[in-house]
Amino acid sequence: MKRRISFLLILLIILCLAGRSWAYEAAVLKSADIGPYNEALEGFRSSCDCSVTTLTPDQDAVTSQIYRLHPDVVVAIGMDALAKVRSVENLPVIYVMVPAPLSDGEGRNISGVSMYISPAKYLDAMTRLFPGAKRIGLVYDPNNSDAYVKEAMREAAARGIELVAEKAETSGSVPSLMDSLKERIDIFWMLPEPGLLNSATVDYMLLFSFESKVPIFTFSKKYVDMGAAAALTVGSFDMGAQAGAISKRLHEAGAPGQIRVDARVSGIIVNSKVLRKLGIESNKNTAGWAKNVD
Question: What SS3 class is residue 240?
Answer without folding.
Answer: helix
